[in-house]
């Protein structure tokens, strides 16, 4: 073996790790892992999930190091992400469960790093393709397992949480652990498949099949939350479709009119919330949330400013066990991302989280309405879906939902940054 063999192999490894193909593979794995955490924990437990996450982070770090000079690092993170994550980290100091809080902050940062990596290493079209390919696989596997459990063997798959209710047309859960999470993934998939179709990224037949897969998953999930978020996303799509055809000079007037109309729709929806809930046959789900939120209000007044300390998914420890006892059933979250943030990291954390979603949505909306490419619709519509879903679920605070928020926020900020405007002025 020649003396130059080792340096040559090292150079080959460096080129491979720094290649676009490697970054593509890591992005696909990151998205797949983030949205498959329930199935991974069911198969190999928390140690297996954490080991996979740690290994993936090492690969991301290696990829970033090899492509260091090719990356534009200026203004990489929106300040809203830094403030929210920083406040969550600070909450360890006053948390009632400091050990769990510290570990959960690291977990939050880990998925944020994955989101930043995907946003940095892939452009928006590549991100849409990555989500499309991953969600087709995850939804396809979910429906295949539901078919197996509900029709072929007519028996639940307990360790995955699959009840086997496909023969009764649902509700189904797939590999995601709950029907609402399946509905959320299917909704993001629906948005992604529509953008893929309009961008001609995939063939027409594959696009139609993908959209049918997503809509079928939403229907079979029986998730009222997914239906409401789907309605909001379709209204947003129609509004953006109209805005993109308005002359640029008068577009701001239409934006203002849409803002006023949106505010009026929210107020009307709140006034008619009981009727809407009855029409969606969601009275049972609403009562569950109402009981939990009432219990939350008893404890919110004790630590309103700083909260009880960041934990993400609720651990089996006070005050979360007290909340579950008071609500009469176990819960993994407050079933509302904004209230969850308020409870865990107080008023400051709740405002920071709302600002993160709000600022990212405004940036993405302006980009979608002003840029010609259809691909800019994806972050805007995804953030609309996340913002609406967050009123009834806490998906945006952990794992795949959190990573999705980070990706959209980073991409929107890099395309429309006030720091860049200041730098140019």
Automatic annotation (TrEMBL):
* Subcellular location, principal: membrane
Q: Which GO terms describe its molecular function?
A: ligase activity
Task: Say if the entry is tagged with keyword Acyltransferase.
Answer: no
Q: Where are the transmembrane segments?
A: 21-40, 46-66, 73-93, 105-122, 134-153, 173-194, 201-220, 226-244, 256-276, 341-362, 374-391
Keyword Transmembrane in annotation: yes
Task: Say which domain of life the source belongs to.
Answer: Bacteria
One Pfam family for this entry, by name? Wzy_C
* Keywords, ordered alphabetically: Ligase, Membrane, Transmembrane, Transmembrane helix
Residue ranges of every copy of the O-antigen ligase-related domain listed in the record: 210-353
**Where in the cell?**
Membrane
Membrane topology recorded in Swiss-Prot or TrEMBL: Multi-pass membrane protein
Q: What is this protein called?
A: O-antigen ligase family protein
User: Which organism is the protein's source?
Assistant: Agromyces lapidis
Q: What is the lineage of its organism?
A: Bacteria, Bacillati, Actinomycetota, Actinomycetes, Micrococcales
């Amino acid at each position: 073996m020649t003396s130059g063999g080792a340096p040559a192999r090292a150079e080959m490894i460096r080129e491979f790790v720094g290649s676009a193909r490697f970054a593509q593979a890591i992005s696909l794995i990151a998205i797949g892992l983030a949205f498959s955490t329930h199935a991974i924990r069911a198969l190999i437990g928390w140690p297996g999930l954490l080991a996979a996450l740690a290994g993936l982070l090492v690969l991301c770090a290696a990829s970033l190091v090899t492509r260091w000079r090719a990356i534009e690092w200026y203004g990489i993170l929106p300040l809203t992400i830094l403030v929210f994550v920083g406040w969550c980290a600070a909450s360890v100091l006053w948390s009632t469960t400091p050990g769990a809080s510290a570990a959960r902050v690291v977990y939050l940062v880990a998925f944020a790093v994955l989101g930043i990596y995907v946003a940095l290493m892939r452009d928006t079209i590549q991100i849409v393709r990555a989500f499309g390919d991953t969600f087709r696989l995850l939804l396809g596997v979910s429906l295949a397992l539901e078919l197996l459990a509900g029709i072929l063997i007519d028996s639940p798959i307990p360790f995955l949480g699959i009840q086997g209710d496909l023969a009764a047309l649902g509700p189904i859960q797939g590999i995601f652990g709950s029907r609402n999470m399946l509905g959320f993934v299917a909704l993001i998939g629906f948005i992604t498949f529509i953008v893929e179709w309009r961008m001609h990224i995939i063939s027409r037949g594959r696009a139609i099949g993908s959209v049918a897969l997503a809509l079928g998953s939403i229907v079979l999930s029986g998730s009222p939350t997914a239906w409401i978020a789907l309605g909001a996303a379709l209204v947003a799509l129609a509004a953006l479709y109209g805005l993109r055809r308005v002359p640029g000079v008068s577009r701001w007037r239409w934006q203002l009119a849409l803002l006023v109309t949106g505010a009026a729709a929210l107020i009307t929806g709140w006034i008619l919330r009981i009727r809407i809930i009855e029409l969606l046959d969601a009275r049972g789900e609403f009562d569950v949330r109402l009981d939990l939120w009432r219990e939350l209000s008893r404890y919110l007044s004790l630590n309103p400013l700083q909260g009880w300390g960041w934990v993400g998914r609720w651990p089996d420890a006070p005050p979360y066990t007290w909340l579950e006892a008071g609500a009469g059933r176990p819960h993994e979250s407050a079933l509302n991302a904004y209230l969850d943030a308020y409870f865990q990291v107080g008023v400051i954390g709740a405002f920071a989280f709302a600002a993160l979603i709000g600022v990212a949505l405004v940036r993405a909306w302006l980009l979608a309405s002003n840029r010609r490419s259809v691909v800019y619709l994806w972050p805007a519509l995804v953030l609309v879906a996340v913002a609406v879903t967050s009123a009834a679920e806490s998906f945006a605070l952990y794992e795949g939902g959190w990573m999705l928020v980070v990706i959209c926020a980073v991409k929107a900020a890099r395309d429309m940054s006030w720091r860049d405007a200041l730098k140019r002025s």
